[in-house]
Design brief:
- By secondary structure, this protein is α+β, with helices and mostly antiparallel strands.
- The protein folds into 3 domains: about 60 residues, Ubiquitin-like (UB roll), CATH 3.10.20; about 80 residues, no CATH class; about 160 residues, no CATH class.
- About 50% of the residues lie in helices and about 10% in strands.
- The strands form 3 sheets. The chain has a 3-stranded antiparallel β-sheet, with helices on one face.
- The mean pLDDT is about 95.
- The structure holds zinc ion (ZN).
- Zinc ion binds next to loops.
Length: about 325
């Protein structure tokens, strides 16, 4: 348990240890009703309430945040996210927006922005192109170095979140789906979408070939995009995608189907599945288990393989897919 410093209890008249508890409170700020969990301290000796330093501020901040959320104002946390997102300091950002140099600083200190200012900040949080417009319009307001840095960050984000190819769109759809997907996991899911695409629609829905790397099939272009995440869970943080318009109905049906079945495993389990399958194996003939290999896995081999599996197990039914997965005889680490 966390040990806290003792504080003074007015009833016990001595330093005591204490506990922090939460009670539901309802208050009005201007005309807004706010419900929140108020934190308070309880003396461990006499059970009376006592004043814990810093707790009032914490409660105030919570009220402030709820007030802002309810009235559509940008929160301090969101302003910090903007600075992080574009790797920009508060003063240059103020200048870039054509505001007084200390405006953002004051907002970060707790001042409530006017509605118009708040709306601009909310736009910046969700749209890179709005930021880009300000950057070009007001570049004379900031140093060339600051300009280049922000420009570079936007370019990187554009590349990361580009939806030009179907493989990119499917990736973003899956990353935003709520499943915890690492880059390794993403590669295997894409591979199964490709394989199942032949079964569902008799075509390569992904329109991209993969290579037989040590850890299973990999789509290098997509892999490189998300390389920066390492082994972390991928996210499209601060990007808003309309998931419904990202994919066609046909694509969505297939991707949802594959996600529903394979999404409950993890990247390492799927790696084992693919290691048991002919497409990956046949592309690695002559290679040691841990030897680097960038041989392409032929689309035709993938197609024939999944058509064969479908004939035997019926991959259009989830029971069929599960029977197939069982047949691979892999120790499964399912995530509940
Ligand atoms: Zn006490």
């Amino acid at each position: 348990m966390e040990r806290r410093k003792e504080i003074l209890c007015a009833y016990c008249r001595k330093l005591v240890s204490y506990e922090i508890q939460v009670r539901k409170e309802k208050i009005f700020v201007k005309d807004t009703e706010i419900e929140y969990g108020e934190k308070y301290g309880i003396c461990s000796v006499c059970g009376n309430e006592l004043t814990v330093p810093g707790l009032d501020d914490e409660n105030e901040n919570k009220i402030e945040e709820i007030y802002r959320k309810k009235n559509g104002y940008v929160t301090i946390q969101e302003i910090n996210q903007i600075l992080e997102k574009y790797r920009v300091e508060k003063r240059p950002l103020s200048n870039l927006l054509g505001w007084g140099e200390l405006t953002i600083t004051r907002y970060l200190d707790g001042q409530l922005p006017g509605k118009k200012y708040s709306d601009v900040l909310i736009q910046l949080l969700h749209s890179d192109s709005v930021m880009e417009e300000y950057l070009e319009k007001n570049k004379k307001n900031i140093t060339e170095k600051a300009y280049e840095k922000i420009k570079g960050t936007i370019e990187k984000r554009k590349q990361l979140y580009s939806t030009n190819t179907i493989a990119e769109r499917i990736s973003i759809y899956m990353i935003s789906s709520g499943y915890e997907i690492t880059n390794l996991f993403l590669q295997k899911l894409l591979y199964y979408i490709k394989g199942f695409g032949y079964v569902f629609y008799q075509k390569d829905i992904l329109n991209m070939s993969c290579e037989a790397w040590v850890n299973g099939p990999v789509f290098p272009m997509i892999y490189d995009k998300y390389k920066g995440f390492g082994k972390e869970i991928l996210s499209c943080e601060n990007m808003e995608f309309d998931l419904n318009s990202l994919l066609s109905e046909e694509e969505k049906t297939l991707v949802d189907y594959v996600l529903n079945i394979f999404g409950k495993y993890n990247g390492w389990t799927l790696r084992e599945f693919t290691h048991k399958e002919r497409p990956w194996q046949s592309a690695r003939v002559g290679f040691e288990e841990n030897e680097r290999c960038t041989n392409e896995i032929s689309d035709e081999v993938i197609r024939t393989y999944f058509m064969e599996v479908d004939k035997r197990y019926d991959l259009k039914k989830s029971d069929g897919v599960l029977a197939y997965i069982n047949s691979l005889d892999v120790l499964v680490q399912a995530v509940v």
